[in-house]
Amino acid sequence: MIADFEYFAPKTVEKALSLVSQYKEEAKIIAGGQSMLIIMKQGLLTPEYLIDIKGIAALDYIKYDEGKGLRIGALTIHRAIEKSPVIQKHFGVLSETERNLATTQTRNWGTIGGNLCHGDPAGDPAPVLIALKAKLKLASLGRERTIEVEEFSKDYLEVALEPDEMLIEIQVPIPPPHTGAAYEKLMVMKGDMGIVGAAVSITLSPGNGVCKDARIALSNCASIPLRAKEAEQVLVGKTINDSLLTKAGQIASTEVDPPADVHGSAEYRREMVKVFVKRVTRIALERAKAA
Amino acid sequence: MKGEPRELKLTVNGKPYELKVKPNTLLVDILRKNLKLTGTKIGCLDSACGACTVNIDGKAVRSCSVLALQVNNREVITIEGVADGDKLHPIQEAMVEHGAIECGFCTPGMVMSARALLDENPSPTREEVREAIQGNLCADEGYVKYIEAIEMAAERMRGGK
Fold first, then answer.
1. Which ipTM was obtained for this model?
2. Are A47 and B55 a contacting pair, CB within 8 Å?
């Protein structure tokens, strides 16, 4: 049912990088494979070489530093991020996101790096990381570079990895003071893929409570996780009130190009963007006020 | 070479095995076909139903969604390894007593999800129990009895009666 491939299970990053540099486009990297095995079973992905990096223990870590922020190894499983006390304390929105990302079984094996590299615009971590201004560390043999999460997705299931590169680390900066963030998605069942989702980060000016910065990123509303930049501008420089929240939702719904499928028409998704941008921005705002 | 069988060493239900498997083989297939452990069920084979849930290194994972070679050097527990000889595990016992069974097809997966939960968290809230089996579909909608049975088992395992 899954087409044959040649299998490698490198135990170090260097070995994995030398394999991807050798086989390039003919190879695919598998981590937890919770998304990838599904499309391999469907015959949509038939790599000649499969490089299984799940066993590279060096990429399974969560590190927090008050200066450098949060660093998550690409092979950290979703469940570990959800349960991490340091993430719960300093980046609660990430823990909340992971909790609804999929079923417990999937979160027990699937990795954050695999999720990001799969490049599904319905994925949950990417929009949240975009709202949090996170970066990704990518490596190829003898070379490293960092890229904004916002620049990483290119199209449906396509990301900015070169054929000889792999994702190493997710880097989340410490948010400025008076910042609140939230993510919610519309689900048929808890843990389902989102029909639409909104991640919002709001930073307030101390004292007067004016919105200093706003970042809104949407899932499953376009071919990539989409930043609603015009909706953000509705909020920046203003004291956010209910009518501004409604307006931000309306503007966001004009920025999206949502898919239509069995879970909802494009029109329905646009309506839900209005609802979710308003709802999630309100939560982020309350959190920013309390921060 | 493409498709060439590879060595796989793993422990299943406490017993060590050394197998040769093709790289495209799923964990559920070696459990059911090579080891004849057919208690692990195949429902959807598509990461949707949870009937094939096993415990890998103590965590509930779907065996249809993991390549067999990915569990190299790991420890797998299936439904056959849950009871202690003839003595049922408290989760199984509670499910039998409470009638949390329905047609039985989803039951092994439910037990494996519950086992991983109670090993990690002996005093789960109802919400945590629900979350632990959220990925286990029961076509008969027998969820409430399952949830109650898991709570009963948790209480017994904590030493209460």
1. 0.96
2. no
